[in-house]
Specification:
Strand content: under 5%
Pfam family, one: DUF1016_N
InterPro entries: YhcG_N
Number of helices: 3
Distance between the termini: 73 Å
Protein name: YhcG N-terminal domain-containing protein
């Protein structure tokens, strides 16, 4: 197997490194924007779902139980995991 070695490499195009750096910067910014927007959408949809559930359960026995459970003191079974509570 033989490899040809380019004896006369092409001279670099003026400003090519600058263009490459700018492209990489824009690509990284786009990726960051996509991640940020996705996170915001997930949070928004979660809050929308929470609002719908709270509206549907308003005054129901299940909603009262959920609210009481959230305000209840720590049970003894949990004290083994968090002894100071």
């Amino acid at each position: 197997m033989t490899y040809e070695i380019d004896q006369h490499p092409e001279p670099p195009v003026p400003g090519q490194r600058l263009v490459t750096d700018i492209r990489e910067l824009v690509a990284a910014a786009r990726t960051q924007v996509v991640c940020t927007v996705n996170s915001s959408m997930v949070q928004t949809y979660w809050h929308i779902g929470r609002l719908i559930v709270e509206d549907e359960q308003q005054g129901s026995a299940r909603a009262r139980l959920r609210q009481a459970a959230a305000q209840a003191p720590v049970r003894r079974a949990d004290r083994g995991v968090w002894p100071r509570l």
